[in-house]
Amino acid sequence: MTSPGTVWEKRALARGLYLVATPIGAARDITLRALDILASAEVLAAEDTRTLRHLMEIHGIPLDGRPLVPCHDHNEGEAAGRLVAAVAEGKSVAYASEAGTPLVSDPGFALARAMVAADLPVTAAPGPSAVLCALAVAGLPSDRFLFAGFPPPAQAARRVFLDGLKAVQATLVFYESPRRLPALLSDLADRLGGARDAAICRELTKRFEEVRRGPLDQLAADYADTQVKGEVVVLVNRAAPETTETATWEAALDEAMARMSVKDAAAMVAEAFDLPRRDVYQAALRKGKGD
């Protein structure tokens, strides 16, 4: 039963796995639906059981003797078997990673895949995500992005990894350890080009949130001798469209309009060729009308 003054409701849940997004910083960022699921699920599972217990305590959700199963990188395969069996028996299972959305550079994939393989229901309770939060504040194109996760820690492997992303025409989003941030920025500037715009988002939604924007070479210089603390998301502007020496911006616009909206194609081509966005947009409108 829900106590007076609470914002969550305890209700019967259908059997299945519920993937619950949890705050990446501010505890109040959790959704009401997520609270309902955490209050109602018959079995709880978490990447870090202490973190989930603390979150539930903040919002006044009692454990009430329900099982709380650890499910992290080191035991996910074993834990998945136990949780699949629980759902197969007709129970509702809520899974939460330590922060953010499960499966996004967090455990949960093996668990969700095991449920799908067993033909059992999987439901997402969406909410906080460091990827989307960073994309919203970075000031870089958001119509198309590629989440590339954590780059390899070794420099040789990292450079090969970045070379494979050099021509991607989408905003690139990386997670990185604060201690490896200077090395990553140096390699990004070297492999992708120091003139590319980028953003460093640190401690998003937390007390010391910081967003720094600028070309890669400038950011690499700024962070070269800086000790960084906290969670870091790095975003890099998309590659300019590939063109030949004889190609014109009109040809690039035709190519871009074949796979993007008029507005986004015009913005990308105007940026790539350093042209007035209004002029390119008007040309795109004419092309769209068959002129």
TrEMBL record:
GO molecular function: methyltransferase activity
rRNA processing as UniProt keyword: yes
GO-annotated biological processes: methylation
Keyword terms of this UniProt record: Cytoplasm, Methyltransferase, rRNA processing, S-adenosyl-L-methionine, Transferase
Boundaries of every RsmI HTH domain copy: 246-286
Keyword match Chloroplast: no
Pfam families given in the database record: RsmI_C, TP_methylase
Database matches in PANTHER family: RIBOSOMAL RNA SMALL SUBUNIT METHYLTRANSFERASE I (PTHR46111)
Name of this protein: Ribosomal RNA small subunit methyltransferase I
Lineage, broadest ranks: Bacteria, Pseudomonadati, Pseudomonadota, Alphaproteobacteria, Rhodobacterales
